[in-house]
Request: fold
Amino acid sequence: TNAIESLNAKLRRAVRARGHFPTDEAAMKLIFLVLNRTEKQWTMPAREWVMAKAQFAVLFEERFTRAFA
Reply:
C-alpha cells in the first residue's frame, strides 16, 4: 500500500543519508528515531504498531521513559 511504501522510503532515505553505521545498535537507533518521528504524522494508527512499539520499548527502555514522562 502507499502507507507502507511511504514509510519504507523514509527509512531508506534516512539510512542513505547516514551512510554507514559503526554498530548494529546505531542503525537500530536511527530506525527507531525515524519511526518515532513518522508516527506523529500519521492520521490513522497502524494496526500492528502497538506490538512494534512494545518491542522498541524493551530495546530502548530509557528513551521511552524520557519521551513519555
